[in-house]
User: Which sequence fits this backbone?
């Protein structure tokens, strides 16, 4: 029998814009988190344009891969933790907002719960309606 993981919400501040970096304790250890967005196009979109990244993960997969709609972008998370010789990268990966998808990051489990990014928060701050929810849990104690 496997114990259920207890996820805590990372302190992502969507109005602060992307990229952003913050330190957050998980259990007894503090980790450094760096979150950034990789987006193509949309330069002419107004700042309040919202890109719902979960929408793209719900699109049915076509038989021909070349017909798969391309999302406007994605979020990338880097997690750095303590190592024997100093800080080391535990995780560097594109995140997909799927409720059951859990990423292993060394002793941590990470999942992207919600990802709606406003055009105005890409390399800029302000209240444009971005919503980013990332959960983190200890995989073992």
Assistant:
């Amino acid at each position: 029998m496997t114990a259920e993981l207890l996820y805590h919400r990372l302190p992502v501040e969507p109005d602060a814009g992307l990229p952003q970096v913050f330190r957050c304790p998980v259990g007894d250890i503090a980790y450094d988190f760096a979150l950034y967005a990789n987006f193509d196009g949309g330069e002419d979109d107004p700042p309040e344009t919202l890109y719902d990244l979960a929408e793209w993960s719900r699109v049915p997969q076509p038989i021909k891969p070349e017909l798969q709609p391309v999302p406007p972008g994605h979020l990338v998370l880097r997690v750095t933790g303590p190592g024997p010789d100093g800080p080391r990268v535990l995780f560097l990966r594109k995140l997909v907002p799927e409720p059951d998808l859990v990423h292993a990051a060394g002793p941590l489990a990470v999942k992207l719960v919600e990802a709606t990014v406003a055009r105005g928060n890409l390399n800029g701050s302000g209240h444009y309606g971005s919503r980013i929810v990332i959960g983190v849990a200890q995989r073992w104690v």
